[in-house]
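A favour, since you know our structure tokens better than I do. Would you make up a two-line entry for one protein for me to read? Write everything out right here, beneath this request.
=====
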Amino acid sequence: MSAEDRLKNAETLLDRLEQTRSRLERTTDPDEAIEVLQELAEIAKEVESQLQQAKREAES
């Protein structure tokens, strides 16, 4: 996968992150809020991973 592909994946994940954040704003259920926060953390880790891999691929 190229660095450009990884960046596109990161952009897609950022869109998903924004949608999930929006869900968090709408919820009033504490249990659902916790689940959404966990999902946000997972997505953020995926974004970071994609960006790190893109950087490595761009440098090589």
